UniProtKB/TrEMBL annotation:
Cross-referenced InterPro entries: UDG_fam1, Ura-DNA_Glyclase_AS, Uracil-DNA_glycosylase-like, Uracil-DNA_glycosylase-like_sf
Entry keyword tRNA processing: no
Catalyzed reactions: Hydrolyzes single-stranded DNA or mismatched double-stranded DNA and polynucleotides, releasing free uracil
EC primary class: hydrolase
Organism annotation: Sphingomonas suaedae
A Pfam family it matches: UDG
Uracil-DNA glycosylase-like domain segment(s): 51-210
A GO CC term assigned to this protein in UniProt: cytoplasm
Protein name (Swiss-Prot/TrEMBL): Uracil-DNA glycosylase
Residues passing through the membrane, by range: none
Locations listed in the record: Cytoplasm
Enzyme Commission code(s) on record: 3.2.2.27
């Protein structure tokens, strides 16, 4: 299994990498590739969210479900797409809420690495997917691995903001310690965004909490790419 991971994650996650379920997941992915199936994102990007956002820098956690399954979209960060790729509908709605909340105009792209590099962990529940088949790698072991990531973040000494959009994310972080700020809403998908995502003001609430706890605000404005 290709691992491109910040060294500060290696120690807390070593038990996961050494576990039987991870060996089974590794074998499954090798067999899928050997069968000619296309897996997204590229192997070097499976752990991109962790590599860009080490534990000591985490200030916000946003949880997604699984990677985008279209050509050239996924690159290891939930909700984010590579430069030059059309902005997906859920991210369009995230940008609409960001504009309504903080007055930040949509950037014209969907590349969210600027957030990740500031301590926004953009973590999917499942880290790989077969091209064209959403949720195709569900139940193969990634969920257990990302549960361990969430548990480690929950145990960090500094308070963190969890933005939990939709039932999957809320279930994933159901046991987060109350010293962290947990912000919940429906998913930003066009199917649900009007049911409570629009108007949730999670971005300003996150920054207010971070500043009150001496952790500094996130610059949510994305630079051009």
């Amino acid at each position: 299994m290709a691992v491109n991971l910040h060294p500060d994650w290696l120690e807390p996650l070593q038990r996961e990498f050494d576990s039987p379920y991870m060996a089974a997941l590794r074998q499954f992915l090798l067999e899928e590739k050997a069968a000619g199936k296309r897996i997204f994102p590229r192997g070097r990007d499976w752990f991109r969210a962790l590599d860009l956002t080490p534990p000591s820098s985490i200030r916000v956690v946003i949880l997604g479900q699984d990677p985008y399954h279209g050509e050239g979209q996924a690159h290891g960060l939930c909700f984010s797409v590579q430069p030059g790729v059309r902005v997906p509908p859920s991210l369009v709605n995230i940008y609409k809420e960001l504009k309504a909340d903080l007055g930040i105009d949509p950037p014209g792209h969907g590349f969210l690495e600027h957030w990740a590099k500031q301590g926004v962990l953009l973590l999917n529940n499942v880290l790989t997917v077969e091209m064209g088949l959403a949720a195709s790698h569900k139940g193969r072991g990634w969920e257990r691995f990302t549960d361990a990531v969430v548990a480690h973040v929950n145990a960090l000494p500094d308070p963190v903001v969890f933005m939990l959009w939709g039932s999957h994310a809320q279930k994933k972080a159901a046991s987060v310690d109350p010293r962290h700020l947990v912000l919940k809403s429906v998913h930003p998908s066009p199917l649900s965004a009007h049911g409570g995502f629009f108007g949730c003001r999670h971005f300003s609430k996150a920054n207010a909490f971070l500043e009150a706890n001496g952790r500094g605000a996130i610059d949510w404005a994305l630079p051009p790419v």
